[in-house]
Structure formats: structure tokens, C-alpha cells
Design goal:
mainly beta; 14 strands; rod-shaped
Length: 196
């Protein structure tokens, strides 16, 4: 400011820009509704932080309406786990780092998708020795696609088919009489398997 006499006078004030937290995480490869989703926290304190602030919080919202998890202190380089009771769906996970001394906070979000599994279904009939048993698949999936059909014939032999190579029916020669437990596994495109 300039006075009437022409004298200059300057008043200065400092402004402090506080460093913000830098939350970051990656989601492990959960694909089935029953899987426990794990996220790896790779957050950093950011800016001028040389040590953890006296008051620092990490808040994780799992995106399914459940109670969010709040952790006191900096938890970088740690695994956090959550089970989605609703099962199939796409969920947005939001992590927020908060320096509660300064009020500075920052959030980052990522999505995780739990895919519907296929419902395996296999029909067959008993047969005589040296005859072939015919197996008919009628598996289904509510959304997405099936990528692999695998059968364990219970006699030490197994066979796998893709959708393009699956015969309907497929056959197995009965060379030795006996009772065999057959396990039929169907895997969806995301890698989630179900057996019957």
C-alpha cells in the first residue's frame, strides 16, 4: 500500500499447503461369489511427510452397504480382506487416506466383479461291461459363458472339453466292471468352477 506521503508499506502472510495422503491399492483376483476379496494397500504418505502424522486414518468403503473399515495410523503395504455376502455383482471399493491434524484427505476407487458360476448337470445311464456309457451335458449359466468342461470318470481317467469340442453326448467305454464315482466340473470364463 502507498501512503499519502508516497511511502510504501507491504504486509506479507504465509500460506501453508499441507501435503495430502496418497492412497493406492490393488485388488487380488477374486472371481467367485464365495471368494474373500483381498486388497493390497500400497498407499504412501506423500509430499513432505517424513513420518506418519500423529493423527492419520485409512477408511475403506467396500461398496456393498456394509460398515466401512477404519484403521488408525498408516497401514501401507498390508492386505485387507472382505467377504461380500450379496455374492455376484460388481462393487466399487473406495479407500480414503485422512490426515486428521490438517483435514487433508484423498480418495481412490477401484472395482471388483464376482461372476456367477455355472450350474453343472450331467446325465448318464448304467451300462454293461464292454459297452460305452453315454454322457449328456445340460449345464447352464445365468450370465457370462462356460469355458471348460472336465470329467473324472473315477477309474483314473479324466477328460476335458472346451465348448467347441464338447460332444453331445460324449462316451466312455466300460472295460472293467465295478462302481465308479464320477465328478463333473464346469468352469466359467472367469475361472470359477463348480462340480457335481
Amino acid at each position: 500500500a502507498i501512503s499519502q506521503t508516497g511511502c510504501d508499506h507491504t504486509v506479507g502472510k504465509n500460506i501453508v499447503i499441507n501435503p495430502a495422503p496418497v492412497p493406492a491399492f490393488r485388488v487380488t483376483s477374486a472371481v467367485c461369489p464365495e471368494d474373500t476379496v483381498a486388497i493390497y494397500d500400497s498407499s504412501t504418505l506423500g509430499g513432505a511427510f517424513s513420518t506418519t502424522p500423529a493423527c492419520y486414518k485409512t477408511v475403506v468403503n467396500w461398496g456393498d452397504g456394509s460398515a466401512q473399515d477404519t484403521f488408525s495410523g498408516y497401514i501401507g503395504n498390508a492386505y485387507l480382506k472382505h467377504k461380500y455376502s450379496a455374492g455376484v455383482g460388481t462393487y466399487t471399493i473406495k479407500m480414503t487416506g485422512i490426515n486428521c491434524q490438517t483435514g487433508c484427505k484423498y480418495s481412490v476407487s477401484k472395482t471388483v466383479t464376482l461372476y456367477p458360476p455355472a450350474t453343472p448337470k450331467l446325465s448318464f445311464s448304467n451300462a454293461c461291461q464292454k459297452d460305452s456309457v453315454s454322457f449328456m451335458d445340460s449345464s447352464s449359466i445365468s450370465s457370462g459363458s462356460i469355458s471348460l468342461y472336465s470329467i473324472d470318470f473315477g477309474d483314473g481317467n479324466t477328460k476335458s472339453y472346451t465348448p467347441s469340442t464338447l460332444p453331445k453326448p460324449f462316451k466312455k467305454l466300460c472295460s472293467t466292471p465295478g462302481t465308479y464315482t464320477i465328478t463333473y466340473t464346469v468352469t466359467n470364463a472367469a475361472g470359477c468352477a463348480r462340480s457335481v
